[in-house]
Amino acid sequence: MIIPGPKGPGDAIDVYLQPLIEELQELWEVGVETFDSSVHQNFKMYAALLWTINDFLAYGNLSGWSTKGKLACPCCNKDVFSMRLNNSIKQCFMHHRCYLPINHKWQIDKKSFDGTTEYGLPPKHLTSQDILDQVKDHEGVILSKDASKKTKVSHDNRRDNWNKKSIFFRLPYWSSLLLRHNLDVMHIEKNICDNVLGTIMNIKGKTKDTVKSRLDLEVMNIRLELHPIQKGDKFVLPAATYTLTHEEKHTFCMFLKQLKVPDGFSSNISHYVSIKEHKISGLKSHDCHVLLQHLLPLTLRGLLPKLVCEPLFELSLFFKILGAKTLRVEELEQIESQIAITLCKLEMNFPPSFFDVMVHLPIHLALEAKIAEPVQYRWMYPIERELYELKQLIRNLSCPEGSIAEGYIAKECMTLCSRYFTNIETKFNRLNRNHDVGSQEHKSDLLIFSQLGRALGSGMTWDLHMDEWEQAHLFVLKNCDAVQPF
Ligand SMILES: [Zn+2]
Q1: What is the distance in A from the centroid of ligand 1 to the CA of 406?
Q2: What number of CA atoms fall less than 13 Å from residue 477's CA on the CB side?
Q3: Residue from 343, 353, 348 nearest 314 by CA
Q4: Would you give the distance in Å from CA 374 to the centre of its chain?
Q5: Better-scored residue on pLDDT, 429 or 75
Q6: How far does residue 363's CA lie from ligand 1's centre (Å)?
Q7: Confidence (pLDDT) at 166
Q8: What is the mean pLDDT of the chain?
Q9: Pick from 21, 288, 345: which is nearest to 167 by CA?
């Protein structure tokens, strides 16, 4: 078990992956005798690794393409366009105009964008042969962590971001996969939501609209109306269209504070809202997911000008369609061309420092979904939840790994034992948490959301007509005690 952090192995993770790769090679080439209990027979099982699911930092460690610096986007590879903001001291990823259809009117519009015209083509999609050609010189090279300065120089010399040839290339089929590593939609949603909320609410430390970013606008000679005005040794920032006024912030916070959602829909978002300070803090990934996909379009309508709202709503719709349980190719193609326009609209409104690499990544998500299907099987939620469970097992902070390993074994033993106990409460016979409606703890939970029943035999599905569906819906509600007061 390897815990990431300053002492984590970083790119040297390949050393630890060796046993896994050996087993995967065996599973592909030799196969493993496995018992099939349904037919009481042994069969030869073969297996292949489809792809890895990782956050953006681990993407760099696993793929070998560093996800830092000016070539941070692994999909755009060498062709990514990024720009150094000298005042904000960071890279920004704009230039989404290259994804627009040729001769689009925005391509010559210097003033609304970053002061330049854009005639370039979008980065080309790399084939597996392209990748193999690029990494061929890196065979067997693993850089130690303190070599980071040297890496930067070699990146600059080679004009790429490769740190190593990933150990996964030892798998015979790896180079022919269409998608090797997933961009994690969970973290992308979280980062974008944080950027948007921080900026429109002007939350100190979170907003991308600072004196430094306004000075960047001055250097780029765009958006004259937003340039900082020097008064003595201080700067005054003219109000921007993308920030909420004091009253608007109050309306926004009040909406979230009073919001009621169905059980299991989201955590209690009102806990994170401070009416007094007009601040939202401590949002978890899933809260950001709900906010971005469902709540922002509801709350911001009428608060921000249409020009600012529109791209935000489009972004919300993009993630909604992308995150759906059923994907349709034509819908994905539609959002793929639409997201370029949405990002361009954002570029016209928000400051350049808003566009970190996370805001750029949605441009690649529709294509990944076309290759690898629904996002819910390829994002970090299940993994993060498992990690959360594992972290709960830590009793001795000085040895977290050992503590987790021991706790995990104990839990397995307890689970096995509890299958044989009948006269005490175990996790197998415990009632659903929604069962006890009267209890103080879950006062807001309703019986209709609990699942006390259980299927009899195999199921059968058919589609209800809209009026049948409404009748059934109404019947349940009319016969449910908890709904009677309403
Ligand atoms: Zn990219």
Answers
A1: 42
A2: 8
A3: 343
A4: 14
A5: 75
A6: 7
A7: 92
A8: 88
A9: 21
Cα(384)–Cα(390) distance, integer angstroms? 10
Please write the tens of the pLDDT for every residue from 209-232: 999 999 999 999 999 999 999 998
Token pair of 198 as six digits:
């921080």
Mean pLDDT across 135-146: 70
Here the tokens at position 264 are 């299991």
Provide φ and ψ at 144, rounded to 5°.
-75, 165
Residue 72 CA to ligand 1 center (angstroms) comes to 8
How many whole angstroms from 359 Cα to the centroid of ligand 1? 10
DSSP state of 72: -
What's the pLDDT at 436?
Answer: 47
Q: Give the total residue count for the chain.
A: 486
Report how far ligand 1's centroid is from the alpha carbon of 87 (Å): 24
Q: Which residue has the tokens 């979904």?
A: 369
Instruction: State the Cα–Cα distance between residues 468 and 318, nearest whole angstrom.
Output: 31
Sequence-distant (≥ 6) Cβ neighbours of residue 116 within 8 angstroms: 110
pTM: 0.85
Q: Quote the pLDDT of residue 260.
A: 87
Answer for the pair 150, 174: CB distance below 8 angstroms, yes or no.
no
Distance 82 CA to ligand 1 centre (A): 10
Helix, strand, or coil (residue 45) = strand
pLDDT of residue 12: 87
Contacts of 418 (CB under 8 A, 6+ apart): 426, 427, 428
Q: Does the pLDDT at position 146 exceed 80?
A: no
Amino acid 320: pLDDT: 96
- 79 closest CA partner among 98, 61, 58: 98
Question: Where along the chain do its domains lie?
Answer: 1-53+124-180, 185-377, 393-430
Cα–Cα distance measured from residue 248 to residue 275, given in angstroms and rounded to the nearest whole number: 12
34 alpha carbon to ligand 1 midpoint, in Å?
42
Burial of residue 338, with CB atoms counted within 10 A of its CB: 0-12 exposed, 13-18 middle, 19 or more buried = middle
In whole angstroms, give the CA distance from residue 194 to residue 187: 10
Measured in angstroms, how far is the CA atom of residue 332 from the centroid of ligand 1?
17
Q: Which residues pair with 236 in a beta bridge?
A: 229
pLDDT digits (tens, 9 = 90+) for 438-483: 444 444 456 666 666 666 777 777 888 999 999 998 998 888 887 8
